[in-house]
Design brief:
This protein is an alpha/beta fold and 415 residues long. The chain folds into 2 domains: 6-266, Alpha-Beta Barrel (TIM Barrel), CATH 3.20.20; 283-393, no CATH class. It has 14 helices and 10 strands. It has helices at residues 25-37, 52-63, 78-87, 100-107, 111-127, 144-157, 173-186, 202-212, 233-244, 255-266, 287-295, 322-331, 338-355, 361-377; strands spanning 6-9, 42-46, 69-75, 91-97, 131-137, 161-165, 190-194, 216-219, 283-284, 313-314. Helix 7 (173-186) runs parallel beside helix 8. The longest helix is centred in the last third of the chain and has 18 residues, at 338-355. The chain is elongated and about 90 Å long. The two termini are 43 Å apart. Bound molecules: acetyl coenzyme *A and 2-oxoglutaric acid. Acetyl coenzyme *A (ACO) is lined by residues 14, 17, 47, 49-50, 75-77, 95-96, 106-107, 137, 167, 226.
């Protein structure tokens, strides 16, 4: 049986902490509904300490009775806990720095005082009937012995989970594995890993943490979050399915729409190269790749686009070869004569260089029709038989003009 891993989506909390990102209450609710529909089991819905509007938004989410655990992020203070209770959430993440750097700089506390606060606040929250997770902010820079005491104290006081945060994104997969493996081996409660992407390693670190024994992982849609963001839901869920074989319960085919939804609400355009959901990540231009793909899609495709509800696309551009051009032309009922192929490749390359872009299907057909007309008028001996009627090779006006689209049928589309 596949190992179960639980993703805790914090798009609506850490994601919204990205500079300038604001979700309206309606957007929060819509995103929460979409997250639940895609199979996310837990959503960190917000920070009640931010005040009445945030509490109201959280209350509205709670009222939806979604089939997910809604949890609220709280500092480890009575005020934050009371705000969370007012919002109606059944679960809280009570956060306190684990590193000496943050304990001293932010709170002027030492390790002993921190343990006392954890014991007291976790006890209070558990006594109020809440599911309690303890957020170890900056765990990656924490003294390891203190971290062990934090977990032991939290568990004893009634916490059900501990969250190890790589708050400033300084771990790599090796150090993540080492820290999480040690904690998971000793922890009497579940471990969650919360990675940040400052070094572009959040997803890799999250996979390493899961491999090391974390049963829960924080993610955000598109990796939206503080600074360089968090581990991306779509990357972690897809990588888990493909590489690890663990069961996250996420409907991978729902991810592109979910990402588009969050990108619109966050007003953050998605990069074309964003793994899984980016516009170009299943699009191929290079001649050698397309020639290989057309023979066997496994030649240049590690991730089957259908797995995540996407389609493969072939585009024509500076790097196209004759096979790709012939393939695209054939889709509009035109045969690329082998004698014309090299000239066509050169023409396409010139066009792409002039426009610094791909050559659309319509442009390709126009180029081809123009070239065949020219070849015909010049009486080209190897392309048009000398006796041929030039009308036969003029633009085939009834041939379908291919359109670019990323929607619709999963046949190969091109632009
Ligand atoms: C790594 C993370 O993502 S942590 C989560 C970060 N999230 C946020 O900051 C959410 C948005 N924040 C806010 O809206 C505001 O900062 C509020 C409402 C939370 C607090 O606002 P203010 O009362 O004006 O405090 P301010 O933002 O100036 O400073 C933060 C305070 O929290 C305290 N604090 C920080 N972390 C913790 C903690 N884990 N436990 C207890 N107190 C904490 C700081 O020491 C500071 O206290 P001080 O005012 O006594 O110096
Ligand atoms: O303490 C936590 O719950 C984690 C907070 C967080 O977002 C972080 O440390 O990056």
């Amino acid at each position: 049986m596949k190992r179960q891993v639980f993703l805790n989506d914090t798009t609506l909390r850490d994601g919204e902490q990205a500079p300038g990102v604001v979700f309206t209450t309606v957007e929060k609710l819509e995103i929460a509904v979409s997250l639940a529909a895609s199979g996310v089991p837990e959503i960190e819905i917000g920070t009640p300490a931010m005040g009445a509007d945030e509490i109201e938004a959280i209350r509205a989410a709670v009222a939806k009775r979604l089939p997910v655990r809604l949890t609220a992020w709280c500092r480890m203070t009575s005020q934050d806990l009371e705000a969370a209770i007012e919002s109606g959430v059944p679960a809280v993440n009570l956060s306190l720095p684990a590193s000496d750097i943050q304990l001293a700089a932010k709170l002027g506390l030492d390790q002993t005082a921190a343990l006392q606060i954890i014991e007291h606040m976790v006890g209070c929250a558990a006594a109020r009937g809440l599911f309690v997770a303890v957020g170890c902010e900056d765990a990656s820079r924490a003294d390891r012995d203190h971290l062990a005491r934090v977990i032991e104290t939290a568990a004893r006081a009634g916490a059900s989970r501990v969250r190890l945060a790589d708050t400033v994104g300084v771990l790599d997969p090796f150090s993540t594995f080492e820290i999480v493996a040690r904690v998971a081996a000793q922890s009497p409660i579940d471990v969650e890993f919360h990675g940040h992407n400052d070094l572009g390693l959040a997803t890799a670190n999250t996979l390493a943490a899961i491999r090391a024994g974390a049963r829960h992982a924080s993610v955000t849609v598109l990796g939206l979050g503080e600074r360089a963001g968090n581990a991306a839901l779509e990357e972690v869920a897809t990588a888990m399915a493909v590489l690890d074989g663990a069961d996250t319960g996420i409907d991978l085919t729902a991810l592109p729409d979910l990402a588009a939804h969050v990108a619109r609400a966050a007003r953050r355009p998605t990069a074309a190269i964003k793994p899984v959901v980016g516009g170009d990540v299943f699009t191929h231009e290079s001649g050698i790749h397309v020639a290989g793909l057309l023979k066997d899609s496994r030649s240049y495709q590690g991730l089957d686009p259908a797995l995540v509800g996407r389609c493969r696309r072939i585009v024509i551009g500076k790097h196209s070869g004759a096979t790709a051009i012939a393939h695209v032309l054939s889709e509009s009922g035109r045969d690329l004569d082998p004698d014309l192929a090299a000239a066509m490749v050169a023409r396409v390359r010139r066009k792409a260089a002039e426009t610094k872009s791909t050559v659309t299907a319509t442009q390709l057909v126009e180029l081809y029709d123009k070239m065949t007309s020219e070849a015909c008028l010049a009486g080209s001996s190897h392309f048009i038989p000398p006796t041929a009627d030039c009308a036969q090779v003029s633009p085939a006006t009834n041939a379908p003009t291919p359109q670019f689209s990323d929607q619709g049928e999963c046949n190969e589309l091109f632009r």
